[in-house]
Amino acid sequence: MKPxxxxxxxxxxxxxxxxPVVLLHGFASSGAEDWPARRWAGPLAEAGRETxxxxxxxxxxxxxxxxxxxxxxxxVLRRLAAAVPAGEVDVVGxxxxxxxxxxxxxxxxxxxxxxxxxxxxxxxPFAALDPAALRAAVRTGAxxxxxxxxxxxxxxxxxxxxxLRLVEGLGREPFDPAAAVPKVPTLFLAGTADPMxxxxxxxxxxxxxxxxxHVPGDHQGALASxxxxxxxxGFLMD
Length: 238
Fold this sequence. Notes:
36% of the residues lie in helices and 16% in strands. The chain contains 10 helices and 7 strands. Helix 5 (131-140) crosses helix 6. It is globular, with a radius of gyration of 17 Å. The model has no long low-confidence stretch (mean pLDDT 95).
């Protein structure tokens, strides 16, 4: 069993008003970038909610990745579940974090009460990549297709070796929204100018208890919007 992923924990500042909130960041980002404490952990603590910002492998504050086998989807989910206390949680994920959050709930790796999925793509970009072509694109800066070029640019900006292994590991167990779906109340959030969220209506329609809300912005702008944060807080506190 691989060790639990590191987390940043912020306890509630008063009487607990609900289960802990687990926050999962996106690819080539970080917990601090996607979930600034002044916007997320701080206000949630004041509302009586403990938070756990999980730091994913290969990313800032997360562990380096030594082998592809250490970061297949199933292994990452188990390491993620081991990072938070046993018991019911609410989970909020964005982009890659939303993909992992979906699987946490759908496969019942954690007992999830409410689920928020932001910036989720209906397809799995990692499964569509050729690992060898991606490595070559990271090394040379040239790629034959836009998807490989885009991912390579993100990889080059971080711990390239770790991120390459993470992409390959997650791609071995692709995200398939048709396979298993969360059965808990779920809020989908998508930017009005976010091409990565194309087809999200179809994905949301697979869930028995889901609502979809669009907020202003592209992929990163939507996450930073006040409208997204307001929607998340309202859903978790409802």
